[in-house]
Predict the 3D structure of the following.
Amino acid sequence: MPELPEVEVVKKSLEDKLKNLTIKRVKIINNKLRYKIDNIKFNKTKNQRIISIQRRSKYLLINLNNFSTILIHLGMTGKFSIDDKNKKYKTSFYYTLKNNTKHDHLIFFFNKKISLTYNDVRKFGFIKIYSTKDVLTCKHLVKLGPEPLSDNFNLDYFNKYIINKKIKVKDLLMNQKFVAGLGNIYCNELLFLCKIAPTRSTQEINQKEIKKILKFTKKILKQAILLGGSSIKNFSSTEGKDGNFQQKFNVYSRAKTSCSRLKCSGIIKKEYTSNRSSFFCPKCQK
């Protein structure tokens, strides 16, 4: 599943290609995604212009000039492809062959001979329409924690949240109510940089370690976005560029290999934490 950096790359790619374009029509091929596509609402997007594209956590928000917002979650295999005058670009966490249209579900046709297709093999993603003024309080977004790159994700917030809570530190970081957008890949990586084991309890984390978590969360996400995300499943932007952050992995998917930290002779271990794979060095992560 794409995490914050990958969704941010998709957002930037879509914004670059689609901002200020006008929707001429929408073709719904199959409305059976995680939630049924509302034909009536989508028909009302006709002749509406895209004024901005945002990201909240792992969600995309396409804002239209009629004060409505298209809310999108890519699920496990959701992807967008843009056709621009017969030249096809991909923007997705999962790349497929150009002519693989079997799992296309919806197509937006814009002016300037540009179209946007949503393809989703496993159909865990969804596309909904809300009033722009209500979208941030809809059930998908209202309980999300602060953005990890925002000033609201800080020491004071962290300390207040964990009061009287006994929870594994990795589970805390994966909790979208605590902080929005982090996923398994980046939680594994940032805890390695902090030298903290994923199974450590929040009651055992000191202030110095919390400051490290905050610092490396922001640092690793910014670096991943800059490198175009992680191409675990051949992620690529609209320009067809693969993400490169996977080349920087210290622990994720590196079980049984030597620790990359200088002067550490540890071997990367894989365990399951709350049914999610955790990769860590048992020697330098305590």
User: Anything to note?
Assistant: The CA atoms of residues 67 and 132 lie 5 Å apart.
